[in-house]
Amino acid sequence: MTEVVVQAGVAGTRRGSPREVARAGGLHPLGVFILLAGAFLPIADFFIVNVALPSIGRSLRATPGALELVVAAYGLAYAALLVLGGRLGDRMGRHRLFQIGAAGFVLASAACGLAPNTWVLVAARLVQGATAAALVPQVLATFHAVLEGERKTRALALYGATSGIAAVVGQLAGGLLVTADIAGSSWRPIFLINVPLGVAVYYIAGHVVPATRSPHPSRVDLPGTLLFGGTLVALLLPLSLGHTLGWPTWTWALLGLAVVLGALTVRVERRSERAGLTPLLPPSVLRLPSMARGLAMVLPFSVGFGSFMFVFALTVQNGLHADALVGGLSILPMAAMFLLGSLVSAKIINRYGRAAIAAGAATQALGLALIATVMVETWPHVALIALAGPLALIGAGQSLLFAGLFRVVITDVPAHHAGIGGGVLITLQQSGLALGVATLGTIYLALEPHSIPTAFATTVGIQFLIALLLTVGARFLPRFTSGTRSDEPVVFDA
To answer: Each residue of 242-271: pLDDT tens digit?
Structure first.
């Protein structure tokens, strides 16, 4: 496939066959679907492991700390390398990095599914996270660089929806696959299922995704990359393992180091940009109204979302003594409403803008308040059907939040920085998911031995406050207009 350099909006046509459109530098609807499928697999993989951890522990005789590493290794590699993946895509070609990431993800998933012991599994999860970091940023970058107008708006909304649906479906699929125990393979199909799906994505993408790169490729910012990656590792590693290990001294030392490394990252990146170079995290890009204000909402939203999925799964399985299948199916009302909401979210957001984001946050807050009330008032005889209504409200609200925030964040990012914008966005989302499990999940685990309903209500109450803050915070997002062409400046009004 011939690689072309495109500006946003130049090659967004969808006339002709998918292959012809891709060769012309455009993106056919099938290409949009394949890119979204490529993003779906790595995002779902973060959540699919949750319900399988007990089975992995029994099968591999893994300690609780080792099981934490099975989750943390993937998240650490994924979050730490996402921005670098976006930068390499801008420089080397987004289609090329997408396929490299897809091929690596397939091979790493096979290694996870065939792992003979815990440490091979942890190592394979590290590779899996790293290859996901090469794959995922290319999706947003390609949308941002190739599509225009309403097509771009819909694609960004669908990406936000895909992120949320992948999280919910991942947990649901994990329960189904573990319970099915295919050929006595226990938990292994949760990884092996990525192999045929990933191969299909790799093959089809080779024919329907245009080979584009940034018109202004920049060198890799090695100092910024090392400092930024070190900051994330120093922050997320102790937060992921601290509770399990009893918060030894090294966890606090790493948290202190994260502060130092973060400050150094900011200083080095500012100096690099003043010198006329293109840093890994350009301060000028991060100061864009949509980027700065949107990211300020993406982080707390991701913290609340990640912790809710974790806490709800534990409450249903440990508190209500449901098996993995029931635990996965119990989230179905949330998944269904998320999917339905995602189908109409693009039109709603295009018409109502930031008001739709505020409405989504308020709807989520209502659902969280109701589910906490049901849990506390009917415990221990909680009927899962009584949770369906609140879960549906949570899913509907989150569909608007996901789609709206993802659209806002990268709307005014220049096309030649598309990979950077997508990488920063997904990094913050992934880091927020991990922080949610590490912080609110720790609060839940500390309170659970005393009272499961109190533990659930406390953590969901914090998530409720986050949703209220998002409702108010939507007022301060840049006002975006519908139908804005992506090759023109977006009109913002604070």
So the answer is: 777 888 999 999 999 999 999 999 999 999
